[in-house]
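job 3f2a | input accepted
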Amino acid sequence: MNRLGLTQSNESPVVPEHEYWPTFEVFHQSKRGKRHEHVGTVHASDSDMALVFAKEQFGRRQSCVNIWVVRTSDIVSFAYEDEDMFSTNNEKLYREAAGFLSRDRIEQYKKSKAGN
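job 3f2a | predicted structure (116 res):
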């Protein structure tokens, strides 16, 4: 626990009746240099406790070198109604040199050099 730099307190967090701790999404990294992958969710009173719970729940079963926890409510996403924003543009003339007007300038430059 000391490696996490957490302050130790003998007091347990008080959760009022009929209330629940917030959820945290857990991401773990199996090897250095690899991406973090979502592995699950934990309920915890705060981010420090979520990190401890995530280590206990998801750090023991698989090889793991790092864990991230993110409060679920802090994750933002696009609305499903905006899915057209991700549609691909099949017309990609902008990638081809013929789509640019510079081709005419190059030809004009070549003719002017040939005339000199």
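job 3f2a | The helical segments are 47-58, 102-115.
job 3f2a | closed
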